[in-house]
Amino acid sequence: MGCFAFLKVMMFVFNGIIFLAGIGILGVGIWVKVDSGSILSFLGKIENVPPEISQVLNVGYLLIAIGALLVIIGFLGCCGAVRENKCMLLLFFFIVLLVFIAEVAGAIVILAFKPLAENLFAKVGKAASENIKSSYGRNVDITGLWNSTMDTLKCCGFNNFTDFENSPYYNGSNSMYPPQCCPNTSNPCNQTVAQKPMITGCFPKIKSLIDGNTVVIIAVALGIAALELCAMAVSMTLYCRIKSTMA
Known about the structure:
glycoprotein; Tetraspanin_animals; mainly alpha; 247 residues; transmembrane; Cd81 Antigen, Extracellular Domain, Chain: A; Tetraspanin; lysosome
């Protein structure tokens, strides 16, 4: 019975972590959908953006679905272990197995379609640059969105300050760039000032943040996969022990 009790405790701990992770992901998904100033909401308002980006813009719904699923999984696992309910444990096992298979398939798809993703981002960059040149300084909403994004990320334009050339703001201010492109000076933000030093564009800034945290992202993904495998092993062992005990 000591081993059986240990399995129940481990099952409860594993699923407690899964349950809390689900709540966290669910909260992030809701925040992404509610926050109108988020980068995803911003991309959705850019004209001529590739239609494929709409799938990326729905990441909030994906996070909500994943978070809700993890909450359900954690609940089933905890209740199944505490109440020694074989039906809940078996259902938990199959749900986690399906999630694990989906995660492996998703990782393979991401690796296989990486060149297509790079092409998609190139199209987004072209649309974003055209959006700046046509609307920044003329459209109040677009100007405010760009200013908010640049203030938050400490960046300038989508690629760099040259995105603002020939924009309504640039043409109406004697060839000046937005002050976000020259943050460390009180001088007018002309080309000479913007180049020394040149502030990174918003897309390279986001890309560098992702590249710089690749190891952390991979470690978290592997940790989640290991946790799922352990949870499946413990749940099936507990299921078999309950079955043998009741026999």
